[in-house]
Design goal:
Strand order of the largest sheet: 1-3-2-4-6-5-10-11-9-7-8
Distance between the termini: 64 Å
Radius of gyration: 25 Å
Number of helices: 21
Strand content: 15-25%
Helix content: 25-40%
Shape: globular
CATH superfamily of the largest domain: Amidase signature (AS) domain
Structural class: alpha+beta
CATH class of the largest domain: Alpha Beta
Length: 604
């Protein structure tokens, strides 16, 4: 008997359905019916020809089970923003006169299709990816998945609404100023904005080439990160591509220091419902045991202003210079006005702005010594289409309040849905961290997502239970037991996360150690010494590092601490922090506290 496609297109539901015998041809037929029932003529700019789509699905269906098992995205439907090349389909960037048909797909599309994913359409966008509003397209305004009078968010408008409406498992957007996050916040989705350079932009029409990122919209953090795992990787065809490791998803870090805008820096532009939702989310995070640290956001806001008020707009002109010289009249009026603003910029201004950005980057770096991640509202206000059309520039600028600075500073970000506002619209937060910490941010995000329990997109379907992660160190990596300042949320933890370490599990040592607060500091450090008798169990964390990361980590450990072999209460052994016996001279025995967190809390 044929297996029906699941209601939810999240990856776990589809994997279960395929395991039961779902035919990808039946899934694609069901999606086609959903798209027709959704009846939004402004959503897709193009879709694969029926014959081409049928051939793609037939090829997947013909694969033997062993081959299917090797494809991490087997039979998973996705949508691409129409500034991303797909072989044989026109790339319009929402400008019909600009359209061309690429012979080859963008690197990111090629990688996803090689992993078994099925492209079902190319989505509408703010023309030339210029805007955060989602209303600047001659193809119309994609319908917000919650209320038709509210903007869908841009520029990746169609990419977001297609997933929120249950028409695809995930979609590709692009993000220069926040286009992979704002539409997620307005449509109750996860929006993953990777570290710049982590995902290739070869075959992606640039907006600001030095800042652009390919982003991922998905129903869950786990889904978005699974897609990132396929999409990420160095690409010699992209001069901005960077070879960097992608850390795995790990256990939810405990007792984090989360940076939030100081009370005077919180901007909601009169949206009381959005302000209340953000405050409630912060209360929830504090209730989960995290510490909220107020941060002066003016340096971040100053960076954000550089993006649209400074000379970076010239990059938008450079991306389509030849077209602007011959066909500027073809552009949407707002897009044209913004892009032609580049003509008044000078090379001197560009260098001045570059110097100013360097100064602000240095100032903003101070925040990372105080917090593990920033937590900001994804959108400051949910504007209506009418409000945006009445004041297109000011509303667009305001939408980027908490997003515009991220790529200029080389950071990674993850938008996560957290609640439903009093007016029925979705609300969410964005987690932001230094570049290269994508896995760390996703590990936090999936825990937040699970705690908040929002339905999936606009489908009303319940969020699936959070999948359990292996509590073991994977083959090829080295486990490290930490007991002091390197614990998650503590002052030295960044020394691990900057090396791509993944939290495996919270653990306890075997009861064979004494624990001491060493003399000196800051930073204040504990020392753990193994004893023949009178030992106690110590609260700890097990982290996983690559061999190269482990070597760099160990090289920075100061005497009297060192790395030895630590016995856990389950009788497993891992490398971990131990103290030379001579190091406890002048130290205070704090074994009775059972761990560093409890000792530090006693001193507060």
């Amino acid at each position: 008997m044929p297996v029906k496609p699941p209601q939810s297109l999240d990856l776990a539901s589809l994997a279960a359905a395929y395991a039961e015998g779902l035919d990808p041809r039946d899934l694609v037929a069901a999606i086609d019916a959903r798209i027709k029932a959704h009846a939004d003529p402004a959503l897709f700019i193009s879709r694969p020809a029926p014959a081409a789509l049928a051939a793609r699905v037939e090829a997947l269906a013909a694969l033997p089970p062993t081959e299917r098992a090797r494809l991490p995205l087997y039979g998973i439907p996705f949508v691409a923003k129409d500034n991303i090349d797909v072989a044989g389909l026109a790339t319009t960037a929402a400008c019909p006169d600009f359209a061309y048909v690429p012979a080859a797909s963008a690197t990111v599309v090629a990688r996803l299709e090689a992993a078994g994913a099925i492209l079902v359409g190319k989505a509408n966008l703010d023309q030339f990816a210029t805007g955060l509003v989602g209303v600047r397209s001659p193809y119309g305004v994609p319908r917000n998945s919650f209320r038709a009078d509210i903007i869908p968010g841009g520029s990746s408008s169609g990419s977001a609404t297609s997933v929120a409406a249950g028409l695809a498992s995930f979609s590709l957007g692009t993000d220069t100023a926040g286009s992979g996050r704002v539409p997620a916040g307005l449509n109750n989705l996860v929006g993953l904005k990777p570290t710049p350079g982590l995902v290739s932009t070869a075959g992606v029409l640039p907006a600001c080439r030095s800042l652009d990122c390919v982003s991922i919209f998905a129903l869950t953090t786990d889904d978005a990160f699974a897609v990132l795992g396929v999409a990420a990787g160095f690409d010699a065809a992209d001069p901005f591509s960077r070879a960097m490791p992608l850390a795995r998803l790990g256990a939810a870090p405990a007792a984090l220091r989360l940076g939030v805008p100081a009370a005077g820096d919180r901007r909601f532009f009169g949206d009381a419902a959005g302000e209340a939702a953000y405050a409630a989310t912060l209360d929830c995070l504090a209730g989960l045991g995290h510490t909220l640290v107020e941060i002066d956001f003016e340096p971040f806001f100053a960076v954000a202003r550089l993006l649209y008020e400074g000379p970076w707009v010239a990059e938008r002109y450079a991306a389509i210079e030849a077209f602007m010289r011959t066909s500027a009249a073809s552009l949407h009026p707002v897009t044209r006005a913004i892009t032609e603003g580049a003509l008044s910029r000078t090379a001197v201004e560009t260098f001045q702005a570059t110097y100013r950005l360097a100064e602000l980057r240095r100032v903003s770096e101070a925040a990372w010594g105080k917090v593990d991640a920033l937590v900001v509202p994804t959108v400051p206000r949910a504007w209506t289409v009418a409000e945006v059309e009445a004041d297109p520039i000011a509303t667009n600028s305001a939408l980027g309040t908490y997003t515009n600075f991220v790529n200029l500073l080389g950071l990674c970000a993850l938008a996560v849905p957290t609640s439903t506002r009093a007016d029925g619209l979705p609300a969410g937060i964005t987690l932001i961290a230094p570049g290269g910490r994508d896995g760390y941010v996703a590990s936090i995000g999936r825990a937040v997502e699970a705690a908040c329990g929002q339905p999936l997109g606009a489908t009303g379907l319940p969020r699936p239970p959070l999948a359990s992660l292996p509590a073991t160190v994977p083959p090829g990596e080295i486990g490290v037991v930490v007991v002091g300042g390197h614990l998650s949320g503590m002052v030295l933890n960044r020394e691990l996360t900057d090396l791509g370490a993944t939290l495996v599990a919270k653990v306890r040592t075997a009861p064979v150690y004494r624990f001491y607060a060493l003399a000196g500091g800051p930073p204040f450090r504990p020392g753990m010494v193994r004893v023949a008798e009178g030992g106690v169990a110590i609260e700890a964390e097990l982290w996983s590092l690559s061999p190269a990361g482990f070597g760099r980590f160990v090289a920075g450990i100061p005497s009297p601490l060192g790395i030895g072999t630590v016995l856990l209460d389950d009788q497993t052994m891992h490398k971990g922090f131990l103290c030379e016996p001579a190091g406890i001279d002048g130290a205070t025995d704090i074994s009775a506290f059972g761990g560093w967190r409890a000792y530090i809390a006693s001193r507060a």
